[in-house]
Design the sequence.
């Protein structure tokens, strides 16, 4: 078997860079490119964080800067995540290894993320797209090219039990809250190749993962990569430590699932879903057709007279409901050690 080809779309904060560190150091993975998007930090800061992450591992990959705000013209969704990740998303320690450079804020190409995604998907139709932030870039690519598609798409985001992590909208997951309209587009257009790692998984299994593995083990290795990851995750580790919790894996689960779903996923659920776009408290929440009655009709399609899309028959979307934290943790340790294969 050849290497797994990945393209990563990210908002570039602590768990994102841990996930990217796994990908760029995995012996069975070829990271083709990384695109950045608004989210927990600005898209400019996300771009710099990715560049810094790659330098920590001593690798070079194309970085394309993407959307600075959601499709609907509101301000970028930078909420109280500063408390968890710091203002720069990596704990506000720019002098620590590798020191932040002015050049980190400059993407490797002037090509914007959405068009880069379209081009790469055409050049590598067998590649997998891994989305770790709001889905604005992917939705824009779908709007620009109706035939845009990767072989597989893995998304960290959303929910199905209404378990959220946004302070003022507690039934909504952060990435989908960051651009609900984009999330709706992606779920409806790419459902047949989509795997979602929802917030429910992290919320319901996180405490068990803390018991199953030593969440700090990968930080204790005497390597430059471990040093960087320790710096990047210091803020969330300290914040969660104050309430007796560990900084468990999140985006890392999505990345590892994209690399080898059979090894990582313990349980998968299939739902017909859409995204709530109008609720005062629920905009961005994933709506599940639990009774299988809403979106099973065949007469879906564009209704020209009304000038809008009718939501009709929707395919099932795959949700990872349980995961093997031991595999994720083993790969995290291997990544900071830059261990050769097999993993």
Sequence:
């Amino acid at each position: 078997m050849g290497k797994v080809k990945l393209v990563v779309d990210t908002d570039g904060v602590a768990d994102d860079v841990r996930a990217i560190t796994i990908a760029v150091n995995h012996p069975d993975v070829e990271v083709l490119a990384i695109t950045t998007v608004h989210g927990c930090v600005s898209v400019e800061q996300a771009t710099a964080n990715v560049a810094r992450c790659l330098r920590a591992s001593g690798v070079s990959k194309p970085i394309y800067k993407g959307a600075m705000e959601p499709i609907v013209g509101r301000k970028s969704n930078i909420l109280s995540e500063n408390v968890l990740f710091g203002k720069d998303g990596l704990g506000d320690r720019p002098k620590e290894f590798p020191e932040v450079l002015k050049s980190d804020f400059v993407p490797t190409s002037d090509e914007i993320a959405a068009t880069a995604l379209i081009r790469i998907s055409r050049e590598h139709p067998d590649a997998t797209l891994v989305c770790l932030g709001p889905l604005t870039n992917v939705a824009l690519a779908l709007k620009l090219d109706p035939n845009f598609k990767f072989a597989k798409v893995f998304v960290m985001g959303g929910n199905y039990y209404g378990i959220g992590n946004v302070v003022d909208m507690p039934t909504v997951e952060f990435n989908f809250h960051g651009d609900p309209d984009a999330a709706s587009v992606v779920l409806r257009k790419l459902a047949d190749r989509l795997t979602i790692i929802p917030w429910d998984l992290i919320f319901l299994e996180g405490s068990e993962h803390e018991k199953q593995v030593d969440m700090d083990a990968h930080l204790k290795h005497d390597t430059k990569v471990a040093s960087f990851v320790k710096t990047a995750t210091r803020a969330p580790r300290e914040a969660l430590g104050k309430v007796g919790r560990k900084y468990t894996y999140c985006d890392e689960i999505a990345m590892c699932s994209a690399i080898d779903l059979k090894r990582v996923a313990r349980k998968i659920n299939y739902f017909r879903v859409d995204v709530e776009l109008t609720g005062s408290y629920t905009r961005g929440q994933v709506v599940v057709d639990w009774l299988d009655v809403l979106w099973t009709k065949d007469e879906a399609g564009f209704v020209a007279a009304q000038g809008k899309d009718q939501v009709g028959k929707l395919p099932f979307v795959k949700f990872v409901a349980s995961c093997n934290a031991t595999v994720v943790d083993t790969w995290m340790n291997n990544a900071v050690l830059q261990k050769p294969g097999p993993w």
Notes: The two ends are 15 Å apart (CA to CA). The chain is about 35% helix and 15% strand. Residues 299-309 have pLDDT under 50 and may be disordered.
